[in-house]
Amino acid sequence: MKIHPELEEFKRLSEEADVVLVRAEFTADAETPLSAYAKLSIRKPAFLLESVVGGEQVSRYSFVGCNPRKVIACNENETIVTERDGKRKSFPTPADPLDIVEQEMAGIRYAAIDDLPRFAGGAVGYVGYEYASRIEPTVPLAEKDELGLPTLYFLIADLVLIFDHARQTLSICANAYVGDNPATDHAEAAERIADTVKQLSVPSPLLPAELDSVEAPDPPEG
Description:
Residues 29-171 form the Anthranilate synthase component I N-terminal domain. The protein is an alpha+beta fold.
């Protein structure tokens, strides 16, 4: 397995960046975005993003991510932030919950990526309908919350699989947050990639679709 960048290049990039993307590329001949998601979704939470053109045609890239660095769940009155190690903190939800996501991502310097799409890690999630009433008070809320879902829910993804349908490749990308020891950061990112490769090697948990039994037609007469 070839890791990019190598350690010396990683050290050079880390001098001017807070996050350096470490990756390994494979031929995507035996894996699909759906099968990869099925295998990795046990490392919850996970996501699958498909790029689509014109609402019908699948575009060049598909993205799969799991086991995020952080999860941000903004409810009506309380926001809960959960770290990967399970540590949690809660605080009152601000007037604009998106400020939390913006503050999380602000000021982070990412090393330039030349041969990958612009997205290879970061904030992935959804903004619920209830958010509209926070920025436009005339929009009414439902009298009863039937689903009990957060108003905003975002993952801070730092492990992303990128399927390039044009080149038929799979890039496993680990975002390395640079600390005081670049060699350790590089090794930890490479280890996360190796763990992901191992997880992808197991059989898919997807079961074949059940089909109604089909009887063979009667042989022709005569």
